[in-house]
Amino acid sequence: MTRKWFSPLVSLLIFSCSYLQFLDGATVTDSIKPGQSITRSETLISAGEIFELGFFSLGNSTNYFVGIWYKKIPVKTVVWVANREQPLTRPPGILTINMEGNLVISDGRTSYSVSELSSIRNSTSSATLLDSGNLILRDSNSDVLWQSFDYPSHTFLPGMMLGSNNKTGKAWTLTSWRSEEDPAPGSFSMKLDPENSAQFFIMQGSERHWSSGVWNGRNFSQVPEMRLNRIFNFSYVTNQNESYFTYDLYDASIISRWVLDLSGQIQQLSWLEKAQEWNLFWAQPRPQCDVYAICGAFGRCSQDNMPLCECMQGFEPRFSTDWNLGDWSGGCMRRTPLQCRNIAKKDKFLVRPKMRLPKMPQSLAVGSAQNCELACLNNCSCTAYAYGGDLQL
Ligand SMILES: *[C@@H]1O[C@H](CO)[C@@H](O)[C@H](O)[C@H]1NC(C)=O
Ligand SMILES: *[C@@H]1O[C@H](CO)[C@@H](O)[C@H](O)[C@H]1NC(C)=O
Ligand SMILES: *[C@@H]1O[C@H](CO)[C@@H](O)[C@H](O)[C@H]1NC(C)=O
Ligand SMILES: *[C@@H]1O[C@H](CO)[C@@H](O)[C@H](O)[C@H]1NC(C)=O
Ligand SMILES: *[C@@H]1O[C@H](CO)[C@@H](O)[C@H](O)[C@H]1NC(C)=O
Ligand SMILES: *[C@@H]1O[C@H](CO)[C@@H](O)[C@H](O)[C@H]1NC(C)=O
Ligand SMILES: *[C@@H]1O[C@H](CO)[C@@H](O)[C@H](O)[C@H]1NC(C)=O
Question: Is-contact 77 69, C-beta < 8 A?
Answer without folding.
Answer: yes
